[in-house]
């Protein structure tokens, strides 16, 4: 083993695992492996078992365990008595609810002690009845298969029987057996009793079909040649008849027996007679049903339903007589029997006679009087007078009101007064009287009538006096019916019903808005009038009332309302929106008496200046008025005064823009210098300065302007974007990108879109733009403008899927919805595009780009009406934001333009951009 081959050549020996044996750890005697299975693992405690179970158990371990056991016993014994008492009480309560069997039969077991030996012996043994019935049932109807030997024996016994078919049987398929009198009858069938060792099923089917065809041919034509049976539908009819008979015959027989028993036991029970008659009708025995129902009429002559049933199953002539008998027995019943009698009388032309006879018998029937009045043309007034004034139906409100409608004004008043005396608790009488006064030009009497009605209802403690909804509903009905004075009176008389003084404003404002939504404009106007009586210094209420008159009223009504609110001696002289509304209405409507048009608007704004000298909105409205009327010098003078009195940032900005629009760049720059000294942090001034310097061909000064502006306004995103666009338009892409990165450091979440667009504008950076877009969406997942850009950056085939993702993240975002509408427009899905554009403009009316894209759609595919509607809604919304909208509307010459002009300019810009893209 010590010899090593090649030792002389310098070889050395080596050792393998087979030389030294297995390298694992030797098992130690008595040592157990740790159980690391899932069954030994607990989520809270970890693996089970003792941590030091493999160490020897020594004396100190035993002493420690004894100490801990003593501690456990001590802790367990501290509250042992209390714990045992509680457990005992819980067990007692539990046993009281659910006692054991032992406790339930304890008293019976005690009674068993008194039994004698004879009593124990006399107790019978228990019978074995546990499975007796089951065993009996299993023995019934047991069938075993017959052995083959029995079948063979039966064949042998019948070997000499008739096994061959004659010619007639062969024709019929072998389903008949020839009998003794077969010669006398060519088709004499005893049954399918032909015995054969082998049965030909095809022959059986052919024979059945042949027999059925012969039978149909025989019954289809009678002697006269008329068809009495439909051969094609014979099987279907036969099948339905068999099914009905099989299902109903047994039930009809059982029902007939039950109903016969019911009638016999209680012949005065009308429902039993009716049910028996209907059963016979179902069974097809109409004559027997009629006889039964007439017997029932004789047995129960005072029941209305049985007479109606009898009339319904008889012919009209007999039904007429039956109803006459019913009226004789039941002269005061006028519900359904009167209707049936009326129908019969209509068919025979006797309706008037029938109703008059009925009224003689039942003069207090309101239903009969109404039916009679409906038939009369000339004597209607006479009938109604007899009905209500002769004591027949003095409590019928409908008849009183019908009579009042037929009378002249004075007589109608008398009729309504009489009706009010007879039925003082009926509100409709009072309301009709109020409508009568308004219809005849006496509207001043309407409030008196309604106030008196409310007082009377309150004195009588009627529920209607406390029901606000009832009075408002009646007011709405009156307004829709053409009675505005009555509607106004109803609203006023119920305004304070169940309303505390401190809740008036909240309740009345909510009700006015609800009435306006339901189309009750005059009712809402009345509530606002009541509000202004109590809260005449609240600008919000005046604005709501003025908006109501502007949308639903007349120019005169709006002018009267503003005259109450605006002057210095009245309620809201400081409410500058009302002043602007009044000036705008005077200027645009030009249909009011006195000073109209521009002159009237100047007068209103002049009064507004006196009361609100420091309000910039009024000053700027006056400047816009003069600028729109091409009064540039007037506008310049107003701006000079405004700079001295108001002097706000917007006033200075409008001054600069006026000079820029007029081409006075030097004057505009001078004003900008003064304005920036006062307001250096107003970013819009810096943006205007950059644009002016750029338009003047002074790039260095424009660059200095944006450097100063971004240092003064580092958080203005719009200013950074203007600076980036300046460098990009100057072909300084490196500077533009560097400037954009610098802006993103100061505004990290607001310049992603500009970064993406800058990268996408370069032909080789589409992938980088997509990467930037993914980063932006990860950082701003709910940004609608980013999702909109993501949709537009996708290829046309993938835009729909991206739109779905955008809707999931930004369901109600205007940018996303407008972009989806543009996709529908591009795919010529015009109705869907209109729906989505409408949704976008409804969600955010201030977003001008959506209005422009919508109008572009209507300009290409719409009508004059749709285009006019979009323009009208856009003017009402007066949008001020939007990427394209702001860029176009803030351009030179468009600052003081009308909303319609701005809309056209934005549409033109979008169209030009689309043509360049295509």
UniProtKB/TrEMBL annotation:
Q: List the Pfam families.
A: PRP1_N (PF06424), TPR_19 (PF14559)
Q: Tell me where the signal peptide lies.
A: none
Q: Where are the transmembrane segments?
A: none
Q: Which InterPro entries match?
A: HAT, PRP1_N, Syf1-like, TPR-like_helical_dom_sf, TPR_rpt
Residues forming the PRP1 splicing factor N-terminal domain are 4-132
- Note the SMART domains from the entry: HAT, TPR
Q: What is its main location?
A: nucleus
**Which biological processes are named by the entry's GO terms?**
spliceosomal tri-snRNP complex assembly
**Top-level taxon:** Eukaryota
Question: Could you confirm whether the keyword Nucleus appears in this record?
Answer: yes
Keywords annotated in UniProt: mRNA processing, mRNA splicing, Nucleus, Repeat
Give any Gene Ontology cellular component: U4/U6 x U5 tri-snRNP complex
> Where would you find this protein in the cell?
Nucleus
Tell me what this protein is called. Answer: PRP1 splicing factor N-terminal domain-containing protein
